[in-house]
Amino acid sequence: MAFTFRDYLAEFQQPEHLAALTGIGRGIEREALRVLPEGGLSMQPHHYQLGSALTHPQITTDYSETLLEFITPVSHSPELAINQLRDIQKYTLSQVDGELLWPMSMPCFVEDADKIPLAQYGSSNIGKMKTVYRQGLKNRYGSMMQVIAGIHFNFSFSKSFWQTLQVFEGDSRSEQDYISAKYFALIRNYKRYCWLIPYLYGSSPAICPSFLQGKETVLPFEKSANGYLYLPYATSLRMSDLGYTNSDQAALYICYNQIDSYVKQVQKAISLSSEQFAKIGIKKDGEYQQLNSNVLQIENELYAPIRPKQIAKSGEKPSEALENRGVEYIEVRALDVNPFADTGISLEQVHFLDIFLTYCALKPSPTLNSKTQETLERNMDEVVVRGRDPELTLAREGDSEQQVSIINWGQTLCDDMAEVAALLDQAHQTDVYQAALATERSKILDANLTPSAQILAKVVEQGESLTGFALDIAKQHAQSLSEHQYRHYNLTHFEQSVAQSHQEQKAIEDADSVDFDSFLADYFAE
User: Fold this and answer.
1) Are 467 and 109 in contact (CB under 8 A)?
2) Is the confidence at residue 399, as pLDDT, over 60?
3) With left for phi above 0 and alpha for psi between -120 and 50, is residue 72 left, alpha or beta?
4) Which of 55, 74, 123, 318 could form a disulfide with 501 if both were Cys (CB 3.0 to 4.6 A apart)?
5) Does domain 25-389+447-525 sit in CATH 3.30.590.20?
6) Which tens digit of pLDDT belongs to each residue from 253-265?
7) What is the overall mean pLDDT for the chain?
8) Which residues contact 374 (CB under 8 A, 6 or more apart)?
9) Phi, psi of 69 (to 5 degrees)
10) Domain positions in the chain
């Protein structure tokens, strides 16, 4: 029997099932560049008092030594997740000698991309592997890719949510097989509608010209009075071809119809050789230039706006974790840093993502073929570079691809999501979900309300410096975070976790029993 969207809504409206909607798990990963008060990129190593970037559970680095990453644990309260993030950033700012957190996704002025420091993780084999992987990213995609920041939103439903659905559908699969299949159905719907994310939350319509540093681009940039490059209708240049692009990777067809085929194709990609990357070489003058010359050095190099995830055990690759234990949560990766929120993501955004992802889970989700998937990816590509163009139309899948405006499609989605928002409000005994959806609907009706439009109004129409605008916000955020009172953590927690992380890094280094070459050979032999 085929169930409809409203069949599922009606089932969760039953009083005995409402509580299943309150068990959503959320974790946030926020990236932020450390910058100097005058706006340049900090060249200082990762501050010792922030702990070991290798082992600290909440404060680490991403691609560059100066690109911090803040991680919250799984929380079942949106307010708690935001307060945890605020606590982490308050502590961080108190330990970085007056440096600021850049509030944008695209970087500040960078004088020489070759001087951007690679993230360092100590002398252990696993620490060296993390740095060599980043060396490979630098050689493959360019140094500037290491200073692009984003938000990753980790999301999961409770077991009772899935159990309610499985009983309702009368599905006889094992619980984990059912859950994995339903997460993949969510992912397919996310891919159908994810153009909405950069439209609503894209905050990188302009860049500092230093970002290009001679790199060729086909994007038809215009220049503001202060010399910043922008596209008049862009939403998220971070998600455009200016970001990570890999022609070999683009040719891969990663299937999201079922977990088995997904795992098989990802594992194939990390063993598929690349002529392009082979030219870089593995070693040069005895120094590693990349982990290997395959299309993907490791699975993390597969760039996608969403990923199925399972927590990996020690020594286990992400795809092996999925293969062994199925999908535990999903990672949404299409979010720019929100410059208007001191945490990089607002509480209202979390409420909307709850609505959107629940909608993707409850909406029937047919399988995707390669042609349809390409169409959906083109929709995303169009929105990131010209999402606010009133002439833009997107392709909706069907017997014949129907072209539809963002206003029309967005309104239809909001109408459907209104029922999800009402259901979540009912479950939580609040009205925040319907309020969040009303805010996003207003952006669909008026593109001038989007953050990308607000930024361009400052930089283009009012002639402000993009750097000055970002620095003013960074200083405001630093002030608000310094005045923030710890809500979940405290100073003692951070001081103890810093000390423990350094001890854990040393223990890992002391435990190494083989040289790095042997370690890598063993890792890839598995």
Assistant:
1) yes
2) no
3) beta
4) 55
5) yes
6) 788 999 999 999 9
7) 95
8) none
9) -135, 125
10) 25-389+447-525
Residue among 218, 62, 215 nearest 131 (CA) = 62
- Burial of 521 (C-beta count, 10 Å sphere; 0-12/13-18/19+): exposed
* pLDDT higher than 70, residue 398: no
Q: Measured between alpha carbons, how far is 414 from 272 in angstroms, rounded to an integer?
A: 42
Put the strands of the sheet holding 222-223 in their side by side order: 206-207, 229-230, 222-223
Please state, in angstroms and as integers, the Cα–Cα distance from residue 52 to each residue in 65, 146, 147, following that order. 12, 19, 20
- Residue 47 is encoded by which pair of tokens? 């501050």
Strand ranges for 226-316 from DSSP E: 229-230, 283-284, 287-288, 306-309
H or E element that contains 90: helix 78-93
Give the orientation angle of helix 175-193 with respect to helix 259-269, to 10 degrees.
Answer: 70
Neighbours of 289 (CB within 10 A): 18
Crossing angle (nearest 10°) for helices 466-483 and 78-93: 100
The owner of tokens 């039953």 is 14
Amino acid at 180: S
HEC string of 459-501 equals HHHCCCCHHHHHHHHHHHHHHHHHHCCCCCCCHHHHHHHHHHH
In contact, 245 and 148? CB cutoff 8 Å: no
Please tell me the distance from the alpha carbon of residue 185 to that of residue 363, in angstroms, as a whole number. Answer: 9
